[in-house]
Specification:
Strand content: 25-35%
CATH class: Alpha Beta
CATH superfamily: STAS domain
Largest sheet: 6 strands, mixed
Number of strands: 6
Radius of gyration: 14 Å
CATH architecture: 2-Layer Sandwich
Order of helices and strands: EEEHEHEHE
């Protein structure tokens, strides 16, 4: 049975919090532009997962966005959704600077290359690559 994602959002534009599951990461998006995403990104339906994130990003009203990505694993369908998510941030007219701290486990060069691929498709998002011994997920 697929679990629908219902973000904890108060009335008006507030912070977005999605709790971590076995297949989805913990998401903490602060309306001040600090976005944290940590865990495994292998949802049963990536469209359902990313719809809430993209809707929230479209309402974001800050000049600078800082994303801390500590993803242990990303499946193929989520790769497309994550790229669309990054593109939506860049398309937000209020946002003019995006920085991603892309963390990956030691020797996981596939995940590093995924970040590099995302960066190559984006116009002004800057990625900082951080190799870690353990992502502590």
């Amino acid at each position: 049975m697929m679990k629908l994602f219902k973000p904890k959002v108060d009335s008006g534009f507030q912070n977005l919090v999605l709790n971590k599951t076995h297949n989805t990461p913990e998401v903490r998006f602060n309306k001040n532009g600090i976005l944290d995403i940590t865990g495994r990104l292998i949802p049963e339906n990536s469209h359902v997962f990313f719809d809430a994130l993209i809707d929230w990003v479209r309402k974001l009203e800050v000049n600078q966005v800082k994303i801390n990505s500590r993803l242990e694993y990303i499946n193929t369908s989520s790769t497309k959704g994550l790229l669309k998510f990054f593109q939506e941030i860049e398309q937000n007219p209020k946002v003019n600077q995006v920085e991603v701290d892309w963390y990956f486990e030691e020797d996981d060069y596939d995940l590093k290359e995924t970040g590099e691929l995302f960066e190559s498709y984006l116009d002004f998002t800057v990625f900082n690559y951080n190799e870690c011994i353990d992502l502590e997920i």
